[in-house]
Amino acid sequence: MKEHILIVDDEEMIRDLLTSALTQEQYTCHQAANVDEAFQVLGTQQVELVISDIMMPGRSGVDLLRDLKRIDPDIAVLMITGLSDTNTALECIHLGADDYITKPFGINRVLLTVKNLIEHRSLELEKKNYQISLEFKVVEQTRQLRATMSELSVAYDSTLSALVKALDAREKEVGSHSERVMNFATLLAGKLGIIGKELQELAKGALLHDIGKIGISDNILLKPGKLNDDEWTEMRTHPRVGHDILSEIEFLKGPAEIILSHHERFDGTGYPHKLRGELIPLGARIFATVDTLDAMTSDRPYRRALPFDAVTAEITKHSGTQFDPAIADLFLTISRSQWEECAAKRFL
């Protein structure tokens, strides 16, 4: 199907001449004697190219061009000008005209210019449509990638949660100790303004803190009485074992550092590296505080759960020695009811 061309010129002879020549080339032509008539045609007929005289009674071809490009930036425009008006023609190029020809013009020159402009428009539209298609594909593939990553993240989290529950069950935990301390740690970290990736790493570190106990024998792990020195030596290897397991997994390298240090003490008497103060990763300092909360408010083989007041007394007593004093102070500002909501249970 040949393209539609609108010819706008106040001289009927020029319009008829161009129409005759272009029709012979199988183009469909429409005529308008002025700018207003041109827009009447454009209101009912889509055209690919407008050929317009610059100087016309009333609104000029420049006005037509300016309005036309606002309405349809993709339409091709060829301006016709007199020999003495090339400056205006150049202004039209600046406004978006694709080319211009001067009067008197040779009809062959017009036909060649029209052919080139229509081909150029077709190529530009193809490029534009390809770009739109490409952008759509990028958006769609990005959406699919994000969905896949989200599914993988859920799958990872579900796998980790199932593993942790199995470990908790091995230690005869009531409920999930690891999930509770993860929730506690997330609450306390949020109060410190920790967000985003750092918060996610802290949550995973808290959830997986005892993963190293997978390497501890049942005789030690489940012993109801006190451990002897040799048994304590083996028990104290679990932070390093956990770190060694997880540090080889790219997305768990951050949590692995928390796991390695979760038994360090603020005064430097913890293990495995006897780190002191702020040399202990912040996530591990947060964890140490909330781990005490869950340990004291949960039943143990050798004792029943202790009341919440005993926890606050313990945190206060060991602030600056076992616990980071700033974190301990923040812990004490959080209400009992908020901790109970995190634990999904009532404290004594």
Write up what this structure looks like.
This protein has 348 residues and is α/β, with parallel strands linked by helices. The chain folds into 2 domains: 127 residues, Response regulator (Rossmann fold, 3-Layer(aba) Sandwich); 173 residues, Hypothetical protein af1432. Helix content is 59%, strand content 8%. It contains 15 helices and 5 strands. The protein has a 5-stranded parallel sheet with strand order 2-1-3-4-5, sandwiched between helices. Helix 6 runs antiparallel to helix 7 and helix 6 packs across helix 12. The longest helix is centred in the middle third of the chain and has 64 residues. The radius of gyration is 39 Å and the shape is rod-shaped.
What's the level 1 CATH class of the largest domain?
Mainly Alpha
The run of helices and strands is EHEHEHEHEHHHHHHHHHHH
Q: List the domain count as a whole number.
A: 2
Class computed from helices, strands and strand pairing: alpha/beta
Strand content: 5-15%
Number of strands: 5
CATH superfamily of the largest domain: Hypothetical protein af1432
Tally of helical runs: 15
Considering DSSP H and I runs of 4 or more, what fraction of the residues is helical?
Answer: 55-70%
